[in-house]
Amino acid sequence: MAKEFKKGYNYQYDSTARAYEQPIISPVPSTEPLKRPRKAQKKKLDIAFGMQLSFCGVVLFTSAFLYINSYASLRAKQGQLIELKNNMIAVKSAISETQATISEKLNLDYIRERAANELGMREPLPHQIVYIELSEESYTSYEK
Prior knowledge:
144 residues; mainly alpha; 3 helices; membrane
């Protein structure tokens, strides 16, 4: 018995084979190809969905373009505004410097000092002063 197991025989005594049934021969299928029904409504729905999706894409692109365009123009205007503010500050500074120079040079003491030191002028002596009387018709009066 050990030799039988070594050879690979695996036989069981008192066993019988199953009853083999003959297959039933089925009729030969037809050779005509099967036609699938067309789904026209689904195709229409797909086209409608594609159109809606395309429209949403166009709207999204347009709104993004307008937003970026308005943001860029806003940044450009802000840059111009900052430049104008800097120019305005520089002009105000120049105006205040000019006003300070004018107020300094309109001072009577400054005028006397400059005339005496830089230009070599002196105050006139009493015999050098001449007084002239003018009639009212020869000049314009602003106080009346």
